[in-house]
Amino acid sequence: MLMRLTLWECRVDISICSKCALYFPSSKRKMPKDHLTKIKIMADYCDAYAWDQEGVCIGLSYNFPEREVIAQIEKELEEWSGWFMSNDEDLNFPWDDFHEKGLALAKRLKEAIRDTGVPVFYEPPFEDPNRMNHEVLEIE
User: Taking a C-beta distance cutoff of 8 angstroms, is the pair 83, 94 a contact?
Assistant: First the structure.
């Protein structure tokens, strides 16, 4: 569950996840489009799944509004991240299936933005017990 509040002194809307107490800008981070130099796909709490070069959660549709396919990919990433969130305490979580779906979505994202030159990476979440056996992959 998210709580939204506005910090008037700095005029920033933030959301606070009651499950993990993470703070992040509402509606994901909105930054100048020419500032985006890297995208990492990694599921995390609070439906976070896309990260910029500074490790801040970003909104893909905001950064690529002219590309309709991005909205569909982002919807599927939200569902994929929700799968992780709803099963984070399941000791029998199907990590291989989860990574297969995450990699497929990262590849679709890369294909959709290939002409921008922004690299896309995939990283397993920290909760994956086999995380150390996986490396961060740059999507070609």
Answer: no
What is this structure's pTM? 0.76
The strand order across the sheet containing 120-122 reads 48-51, 39-44, 120-122, 137-138
DSSP lists the bridge partners of residue 17 as 2
Q: CB–CB of 102/80 below 8 Å? A: yes
Q: Are 105 and 122 in contact (CB under 8 A)?
A: no
Structure tokens at 38: 């890297």
Quote the pLDDT of residue 87: 78
Quote the CA–CA distance of 119 and 109 in Å, as a whole number.
10
Give the pLDDT confidence of 18-60 residue by residue, as tens digits: 444 444 444 454 555 567 899 999 998 777 899 999 988 999 9
Delimit the domains of the chain by residue range.
Answer: 31-138
